[in-house]
Design a protein that fits this description.
This protein has one domain (2-145). The chain has 8 helices and 2 strands. The longest helix is centred in the middle third of the chain and has 21 residues, at 69-89. It has 147 residues and is mainly α. It has a two-stranded antiparallel sheet.
């Protein structure tokens, strides 16, 4: 479970490692400004790292151009929903990664957590991440590389 969660969260923020410079649009500026938060998701260790990544994706989603605005919103919503679900069921991101304190989850909590993970997986569709990667590179001259 730990590998699945870490891989999903890392992949969902397809912009895990950004480098480069480029366009002067608010979108490109926001992608550059959130680079550290997006970079950190590859090594996220706690709820704060997860929240920073969700915040970065939300900021980008608000200024993303039409070809990818829905994609960024899907990623932002999935990350935000995942963080909210963790709080609701009383599990921290650290607990989930270490597979601790999961035995106390009710069946309803487990179902909700699985649904949130499925939402993350859906947001991680390879078509979506490729579209975002290509668009960021074309518009902003920022190369997104896997971490």
């Amino acid at each position: 479970m730990r590998r699945i969660v870490a891989a999903l969260v890392t992949c969902v923020t397809a912009a895990a490692v950004l480098s480069g410079c480029g366009g002067d649009s608010p979108y490109c500026a926001t992608v550059r400004d959130t680079e550290a938060q997006l970079r950190a998701i590859g090594s996220a260790q706690d709820d704060a790292d997860l929240a920073r990544a969700a915040g970065a994706a939300n900021r980008i989603a608000t200024v993303a151009p039409a070809p990818v605005d829905a994609d960024w919103k899907g990623i932002a919503d999935a990350l935000t929903s995942f963080a909210t679900t963790l709080k609701k069921v009383g599990v921290t991101y650290q607990d989930l990664l270490a597979q601790q304190n999961l035995q106390d989850l009710t069946d309803a909590d487990r179902t909700e957590l699985r649904a949130s993970l499925a939402e993350l997986e859906k947001a991680n569709d390879p078509t979506v991440t490729k579209r975002i990667n290509d668009q960021v590179q074309d518009e902003c001259d920022i190369v997104i590389r896997p971490s």
